[in-house]
Design brief:
Mean pLDDT: 82
Strand content: under 5%
Low-confidence stretches: none
Structural class: mainly alpha
Order of helices and strands: HHHHHHH
Shape: elongated
Helix content: over 70%
Amino acid sequence: MSYSHHIENHYIHRAGWLRASVLGANDGIISVTSLVMGMAASGANTHTLLIACIAGLISGATSMAAGEYVSVQSQKDIEHADLKFEARELEKNPHLELDELTMIYIHRGLTPELAREVAIQLTEKDALQAHARDEIGIVDHTAARPIQAALSSALAFSLGALCPMLAILCSSPAHTERVVLVASVVSLVILGALSSYFAGTSLWKGSLRITIWGILAMAFSSWIGSFFNVAGV
């Protein structure tokens, strides 16, 4: 019996890099813009704002990379520990593990006879892979990749932080705060639309969600900055 080869590109395959990229870009836009808005409200000049923006980009990108690597590496360590534990169980109690796999398939809707046959065949092919996928929930496209997450986050943060930086460079000192705000809001709208596109969801909902939270963060930072006056310092 021959079967046609039907390829489907599911959105879940993008989960690893998309999550890290959206988080990094969103953080880059919001955190650096909030920093600039807060300092601008305190009376800082354009040169100071630019230095703060550059410092925020560098520190934020390295922090995002380190944070993502450490957190995702922790997830990877847990996955490896679970796989080692499962490998030992398969070696010590193969019949009990086969029964366990059979019950998993029965609970998913197969008849006991078919579930047993499926469990036997998958165990013969690759027992550890079968248990990793169906018992633990570890699959290749969602497995932890710390290096990928770290690089994606750092690059995305840097690109996001470039938005307020370019806005400062392209604006006159009298309008810096307004230009940075408008540029950042537009960047958040675009980021929301792009993330929703790659996630296969509504572009409007994604844009609105990211933009609203970004505006709230920037407004709060500007409000806090207004309590300090560094213009005469």
